[in-house]
Write a structure and sequence with these properties.
Blueprint (H helix, E strand, L loop, with lengths): L6 H8 L9 H14 L12 H8 L3 H14 L2 E4 L3 E4 L17 H4 L4 E3 L8 H18 L11 H13 L9 E4 L2 H12 L5 E6 L3 H9 L3 E6 L10 H11 L3 E4 L13 H14 L2 E5 L24 E5 L1 H5 L5 E4 L2 H11 L8 H12 L3 H26 L13 E5 L5 H7 L5 E3 L14 E5 L4 H18 L10
Parallel strand pairs: 3-12, 5-6, 5-7, 7-8, 8-9
Antiparallel strand pairs: 1-2, 4-10, 9-10, 11-13
Helix pairs in contact: 1-3, 2-4, 3-4, 6-14, 7-14, 8-9, 8-13, 10-11, 15-17, 16-17
The protein binds pyridoxal-5'-phosphate.
C-alpha cells in the first residue's frame, strides 16, 4: 500500500519561497521536483488531489493541474485513474544504493585522496595498551571452550558500566557483544524483521545500515531530517510517517548523525520516542559516533533513557579503531536473550581476545583524555576543511557539524553521482549523495568527511573544485555509483 501525504503536510513542506519567481505553476512544479530530488518527499508517495492541494495553497485548481502535468511530463509524478498520483523519478530508475566499501590499496595507489570513507586510523597508544592487557588476561580463559554468544562477562560488564556512567541503568544481561555496530544492527534485523516489514530511517542516513535493512528484505520508509535552514529532525513528518506506516523498526542517529553531524536535542528525543512507542515501533539508536561531539556542549541524554523499549547499538570503531571489529547491543533482557539465541546459527560470538581488549578500552582511566585528544584533532580537520571549501567552492552550502566525521554539502548543481563517477580521474574517491537515501534522492548532496590530515585538505578541496567544474554540466549516467 502506498503511503499518502496530506495537503497540510505537503503545504508545510513546500513553504512559500516557490511563489516568488516566474509563473506560479512552474514555481510549484520546480519546488515539488526539488523535494523529490532531495528526498524530503519520498518516492511512491501518493500526493493530494489537485483540488485538495489547490485549496490548501489558495491557488486555482488549473494552476495545480498545470504543475502536476508538468511533473508528469518530466517523470516526477505518475498517475492512474482511480489511484491518484504518486511521486516517481524519471524513467522509473529506482537505484538500490549500496554499502560504502573501504578503499582497497589499489584504489588508493597513485596519490588518490579518499573522501568516500568517514573513518580514522587507530588511536594507536590506547589500542596497543588494551591488547597488551588483554593478552595477559587470556590464559584465564583458555580452560574454557571459548564460545560465548553473549560475550565474555568482563566485556558485558564494561559496556554496562559505560552506559551507567552516562546515567542509564544497565544490567550486563542486557548487553550482547558483537563484531561492530553494523553487525549488531544486522543481528537485530535478523531477529525482529520479516521480509516485507517496514523500517523507518532518517533521510539521509548511513548507507551500510540501509543496505543491511534491504538485505533483510525490509521495506525502507524514509523520514526527513529537515534541511539546511532547519537542520533538526522534522518531527511532524516523523509522526506522520510513523502513524501511516507503523514500521516494525526505526533506525536513528541522534548523536552526531552520519552524514550531517547533527545532534538531536533532549526535547526532540522525548517526542520521537513517544511517537514511536505510540505506534509500537521499536527504535534502534546507533551511537557509533557519540564520542565525537565537537561543539563542546554537554552531552544529550541517551535516547534509551526515554523508554525501556529503545535498543542501543554502539562500538569503538570511531573512538578507537574500526580494526577492533567490536561493538554491542543494549536491549531489554528478553530481546538480548533472543539475539544470543540467533547468534548460535550465525557467528557463535566474538573473538575472546578482542573482547578483553574492549573491556580495557572502556575501563581505561585515560579514556576521556584519549577521546578529548581525538576530538581536538578531528575539530582541526573539520575547521580546515570548512575554510578550504569556502574559498574554493563558495556556492556550496552546509551546516557546521556539531559532531561526527563528516559534513553534508548541498551542491550548486545536481551532479553528485557524476562527481563520484568522475572522481578517480581527479585523484579523489567520493560517495555520491544518493547512497545516503532510500530511493535515489539526494542527488544534489555530497558527504565530505573531515578525516583527511590537515596538510592534505587544501589539495583535496582543490581537486574537488576541479572535479565539480568538470561535472557541473554532466547528467549522471546512473543515479548511484
Ligand atoms: C552510523 C554508523 N554506524 C556504524 C558504523 C560502523 O560501525 P562498526 O565499525 O562498529 O560496525 C559507522 C561507520 O561509519 C557509522 O557511521
Amino acid at each position: 500500500m502506498r503511503t499518502r501525504m496530506g495537503a497540510l503536510t505537503l503545504g508545510r513542506l513546500l513553504g512559500e519561497q516557490w511563489r516568488s519567481a516566474g509563473p506560479t505553476y512552474l514555481g510549484l512544479a520546480g519546488r515539488l521536483r526539488a523535494l523529490v530530488l532531495d528526498g524530503r518527499l519520498p518516492l511512491d508517495v501518493r500526493v493530494p488531489s489537485e483540488r485538495q492541494l489547490a485549496e490548501q495553497l489558495h491557488l486555482s485548481r488549473t494552476t495545480v493541474t498545470a504543475a502536476y502535468d508538468h511533473l508528469r511530463e518530466d517523470g516526477f509524478l505518475r498517475s492512474r485513474q482511480g489511484s491518484g498520483s504518486w511521486t516517481a523519478v524519471p524513467g522509473g530508475v529506482r537505484p538500490t544504493g549500496g554499502a560504502i566499501a573501504p578503499a582497497t590499496s589499489s584504489e588508493l595507489a597513485g596519490d588518490v585522496i579518499d573522501l568516500a570513507a568517514a573513518t580514522l586510523p587507530a588511536d594507536g597508544v590506547a589500542v596497543r595498551a588494551a591488547y597488551e592487557a588483554a593478552l595477559l588476561e587470556l590464559p584465564r580463559h583458555l580452560p574454557g571452550v571459548g564460545y560465548d554468544a553473549a560475550g565474555v562477562p568482563e566485556a558485558r560488564r564494561a559496556v554496562a558500566e559505560a552506559f551507567e556512567a552516562r546515567g542509564l541503568r544497565t544490567d550486563p544481561s542486557q548487553v550482547v557483544v558483537t563484531s561492530g555496530a553494523v553487525s549488531a544492527w544486522a543481528l537485530l534485523l535478523r531477529v525482529l524483521v520479516q521480509p516485507g516489514d517496514r523500517v523507518v530511517v532518517e533521510q539521509p542516513t548511513y548507507p551500510n545500515a540501509l543496505e543491511a535493512a534491504r538485505r533483510a528484505g525490509a521495506r525502507l520508509v524514509p523520514a526527513p531530517l529537515g534541511d539546511l535552514d532547519e537542520p533538526s529532525w522534522d518531527l511532524d513528518a516523523w509522526r506522520a510517517v510513523l502513524r501511516q506506516s507503523a514500521p516494525t523498526l526505526g533506525y536513528v542517529l541522534p548523536d552526531c548523525h552520519n552524514p550531517t553531524g547533527a545532534v538531536m536535542g533532549a526535547a526532540q528525543r522525548a517526542e520521537l520516542v513517544a511517537a514511536a512507542d505510540a505506534v509500537g515501533t521499536t527504535l534502534v539508536v546507533d551511537e557509533t559516533l557519540v564520542d565525537l561531539r565537537l561543539d563542546g556542549r554537554a552531552p544529550e541524554p541517551p535516547l534509551a533513557s526515554f523508554s525501556d523499549s529503545v535498543v542501543t547499538v554502539g562500538g569503538v570503531s570511531k573512538s578507537a579503531w574500526a580494526g577492533l571489529r567490536l561493538g554491542w547491543v543494549r536491549a531489554p533482557r528478553d530481546l538480548a536473550d533472543r539475539l544470543v539465541e540467533a547468534r548460535l546459527s550465525w557467528d557463535l560470538g566474538t573473538a575472546v581476545l578482542g573482547q578483553l581488549a574492549l573491556a580495557h578500552l572502556l575501563r581505561d582511566p585515560d579514556r576521556e583524555a584519549h577521546a578529548q585528544a581525538r576530538r581536538d584533532e578531528v575539530r582541526v580537520r573539520r575547521d580546515v576543511l570548512e575554510v578550504a571549501l569556502r574559498r574554493e567552492l563558495p556556492a556550496w552550502r552546509w551546516r557546521t557539524p556539531q559532531g561526527g566525521l563528516s559534513l553534508w554539502a548541498e551542491l550548486d548543481h545536481r551532479s553528485s553521482s557524476s562527481m563520484a563517477e568522475m572522481a578517480g580521474a581527479h585523484g579523489l574517491r567520493l560517495a555520491a549523495g544518493p547512497r545516503f537515501g532510500v530511493d535515489g534522492a539526494l542527488e544534489r548532496y555530497l558527504r565530505l568527511p573531515f578525516v583527511v590530515p590537515a596538510d592534505r585538505v587544501d589539495e583535496a578541496v582543490r581537486r574537488l573544485a576541479g572535479l565539480a567544474a568538470a561535472a557541473a554540466d554532466q547528467r549522471p549516467t546512473r543515479l548511484v555509483v
